[in-house]
Structure formats: C-alpha cells, structure tokens
Amino acid sequence: MDKIKTIVFKEWAEVFKNRLVLFTVIFLPLIMVALPLGTLAAMGNWNDELSQTSNDVPDEFFGELCEGLSEMDCAQVYMLDLFTLMLMILPVTIPVTIAAYSIVGEKTSHSLEPLLATPITTGELVMGKTIAAVIPAIAATWLSFAIYLVGARLMVTDTIFAYLVDPLWLIAIFVDSPLLTLMSVAIALMVSSRVSDPRVAEQLSAVVVLPLIMLIVGQSVGFILIDQTIIMILGVVVGVLDVVLLYFSVKVFQRETILTRWK
Amino acid sequence: MITTENLTKRFGDNVAVDRLTLQIAEGKVFGFLGPNGAGKTTTVRMLTSLIAPTNGRATILGYEVGKDDQNIRRNVGILTETPGMYDRLTAERNLSIYAQLYEVRDVAGQVEKYLRMLGLWERRHDAVGTFSKGMRQKLAIARSLLHEPRVVFLDEPTSGLDPEAAKLVRDFIAELKGEGRTIFICTHNLDEADRLCDRVAVFKTQLRVVDTPQGLRKQMYGRQVVFHLAETAVGWETAVANLPFIKRTQTVDNKLILSLDDPETHNPDIIRLLVNQGAAIQFVGELRHSLEDVYLQLVQER
Q1: Which domain holds residue B265?
Q2: Taking CB atoms and an 8 Å cutoff, what residues of chain B touch A13?
Q3: Residues of B in contact with A8 (CB under 8 A)
Q4: Residue B61: left if φ>0, alpha if ψ -120 to 50, beta else—which one?
C-alpha cells in the first residue's frame, strides 16, 4: 500500500508540472462548465427566438421529457440534459492524458528501468498509476458538476432545476462517471504499455470518448432520449468492462517486453 | 555471491547471451568488458531480475533469478546504462521516492547521507532537469545505493562524463569496494577496469576469458622486459636467444624485447651476458601492456 501511495504522489508531482496535462485538467472542465452556463445566460435574452425554435420541433422529438412543461421550459430542460451528458466527457478525457504520459513518459525519460528494478510488483505499479489518473479526473468532474449546479440554480426556475438534480443525472455523474474514468484509464494504460510515444498513446486512448460522443449526438438529433434505464445499463456495462480491462491492463504490462522492445 | 550456470538469453532467433558461466566472490569488483551489442546490458538485466533468462540459472546472494525476484530486487542496486530521473522533481524528491520504493526505514537520513556523500546536498532543492550530466550520474549512483545493497551493478558508470566527474565516480566506486560490497561493472573504459577491478571478463555473446587484469596480460603476452641499448638492437637477440628461460625475442630500433616468466630472477643474468659481450645498456624496464591491448586482441581474434 505504501508503494502505491508513493507512485500516486510521484505521478501527481511529475504529471502536474507538465503544462499539457495541466491544461487538459483545468481548461477542459472550465469550458464544459462555461459553455452551458453561458448558454443559459444567453437563453434568458433569446426567449422569443427559442420559443419559435421549439415550436418548430415536433412533440415526438422531446417525448416524455416535456410532459407537464411549457415549450420554453422543455427546451431549457433539453439543453441542460445535453450539457450534463457532455459533462461526462470529462471523466473520459482527463485521465487519458494523465495515463498516456504515465508509462510512455517513464520509458522516454529512461526512468522506467530503475523503477522496475525496485521491489515493486506490477500490480502495485499499475494500481498506483491508475489511482493517480482516476482521482484528478473524478475530482474535476464532480467539481465541474457542482459549479454547473450552482450556476444553473441562479438562472433557471425550480421546476427546471429539479430536472437537473434528477436521480438520472446524479447516477450518471456519481456512479457512471467514475466507472467511465476507470475504463478510460485501463485502456490508456494498456495502450501506453504498447506504444512508444506519449502523443500516440493519448490519441489512441482518446478513442474511448467515441461511444459517449455517439450518445450525445444521438440525443441531440432525437435518435435516442437518455433516461434512467440507459444510464443504469451504461453503468452496468462499463462496470463489467472495468473489471475485465483492469485485469488485462496488468496482464498487458509485460516488464520484459516494455524494456526490450521499446526504442 | 553471484553465480551463473549456462545463462542464456534469446530474443527470437538472436542469441544475446550464450551459456554464460561465472562465479563472482563477495566483496570483489568484477569488470564485464565487451563491445557494443555484446550482451552486457542483457546480462545485467537478467542478474537484476528485470528480464528472465531463456535457459540456464543464476543466483545472487543465494536468491535464484526467476524464483526469488523480489528478494533480488531488494538486495541489489543498479545504475542503468541511461539512468533516467524525474526531471521536474528535485534531487531530494527523486531519491525519497526510490528510498520509499526500496522500503528504506530512515528515508530522510539515507537521502541526506548519499546526497552529501556525492556532493549534491547543496543542490537538493533543485529540479534534476537543471543538472549537468555528471551530477545526474552521481544522483543515479546515489539512487542505486539508498537501500544499502550488498551487490551493485553499474552499467557504464563513467560514460560521457568529463575527466573530473569520472574520477569522482571512480573514487566513489573504490570507496564502495572498501565497504565490502560486490560490484559488477560493465564498461568500455579499460583503464578504469584495470584500476578498479579485481577480475575482468571479456564477453561477446559468449564469455571469452575471465581473469585478473594482470593474469590476462600474462595469458596474452607473458612478461616482457625491454633493454634499451645505446645503438641498434638488431643482432643482439641472437646473443640471448639460447638462454633456456627466454621464450621469445624481438627488436625494435635500439630496443631488445625479451619474453620470460621470471624477470626478477633472470634479469641479472641477461644484463651480465649482454654487458660481457659489449652491449651498452642505457636502462631496463618491464613492458606493461595495457588492458586495452589485451581486450582488442581478444575481441578481434575470435
């Protein structure tokens, strides 16, 4: 356990002095919070136009979402849902950047060999690097969500705000997001165990975000409507995937292969 | 202390280390010499449990490679060929991390001890990225010793260092030897091996030869004595060739070079003979071949 702690704090000390990583961890959450809050603020000034827009959209598009709501309120709930869904990009993208630099960075700086020469087990090393990438991502997501809630509270009515703190989104942010983070880290660690350039590792690992983008696009074009069932199914599927991927991220981390095949 | 029996490592069809059999006694400095790509680093990696042998067996301090890897890692220190550090972290932080990973009890004390010993204490709060190559090498040596290992592997410890830094590292290795540690040095610097090592091995995929530096010279050249004459030495070799203890004669300009086993006993006889026959001997000395001569001959001839 002490060695895992040492690796976690080492990773944070090292990684957060990397400007690119720091930029991703700070700048991306800022955008993801500023975008919905800015839109909400703007919506207050565009009431008439938005009402017109929502009038153009057929009722089937919103389905159950708009039950008991005015068209304007429905449009706002729809927008908030979409932005909350977009907030779930954070737990996937932030850890990818950290984890991608984690092993490939060690290799390119020639610090991996002396590290592997210490009595640390592969499990401890992978666990340390996983925790180091997971915690900042979850913290950034939850903090962003909290700021988003506070900002939204000041700009929307009680009825609309109730939709934002619906169990659907609380499960999404507090259960699905950490699970997505774990999945993202496990994949990034596996990729960075196999490639020799941190940027390649980052780009390959970023593919993890694609299913989430598909969900966002699906919701925005009315192909699907994210509801509690989808969020629960997402949680279960990602949870199972996490177990499998974490197992393989330890298996794929072959000390000998990493030391002898990388140039 | 360190034993290997037919230790072999293959990467696909390539044999990097072929049936290496060695025994290195406790407290000795062992030089492992060989050209680039000879398999020296692969050997060190096997002996430090970083990679597994394909065949054969090796034990370090009684622990078997492949079976007791964690114990080997706990008891062995390694300076890798390219010793990477965490450049954004301070020297002190770098060492503290490794002290914790090596399960050192007094982390702060050990870190201070080695930073002071290697002259880096004043720079302990500086990021390692600002260090010169010599300072980084010293820090990497400190890292390999934090847990007080009984066996230390040093892969090219003075490579790329300026003469002053190289001397400091060599002096430090000599100090380690004085502490009774077993030191395994891979080096291209034959003068360094000559000065530091109790025994050296010449290795190129297979073990070519292993002996003391002095023993290697003797194996290759025997002992040679040079008689500097006032005039050309040509012709004088016939005067001594019949002496029973002379193995070989050679002349170069005014130098008469004789190979024999025991110059301390026989030099007076040779001098007497030459003087009696009218040779004007200016001075006499033993011809000392460098380890480099021995090494080059061994590497080239096979």
Answers
A1: 218-301
A2: 86, 88-89, 93
A3: none
A4: left
| Nearest-CB residue to A110 (from B48, B82, B98) | B82
**Which domain CATH number covers B68?**
3.40.50.300
β partners of residue B60: B2, B63
Answer yes or no: do B84 and A111 touch at CB < 8 A.
yes
CB atoms inside a 10 Å sphere around CB A263 = 4
- Burial, B230: exposed, middle or buried (Cβ in 10 Å; 0-12, 13-18, 19+)? exposed
- Do B233 and B190 belong together in one domain? no
Q: What is the sign of the dihedral through the CA atoms of B107, A19, A178 and A30? A: positive
From B178, B211, B244, give the residue that closes a domain.
B211
Query: What length does chain B have?
Result: 302
Buried b (16+ CB within 10 A) or exposed e, A206-229: bebbeebeebbeebeeeeeebeee
Q: How many CB contacts within 8 angstroms connect chain A with chain B?
A: 76
- Based on the fold, state whether residues B207 and B222 are members of the same structural domain: no
Structural domain tally of chain B?
Answer: 2
pTM, two decimals, is 0.81
Q: Encode pLDDT of A231-247 as tens digits.
A: 888 899 999 999 999 88
ipTM of the complex: 0.81
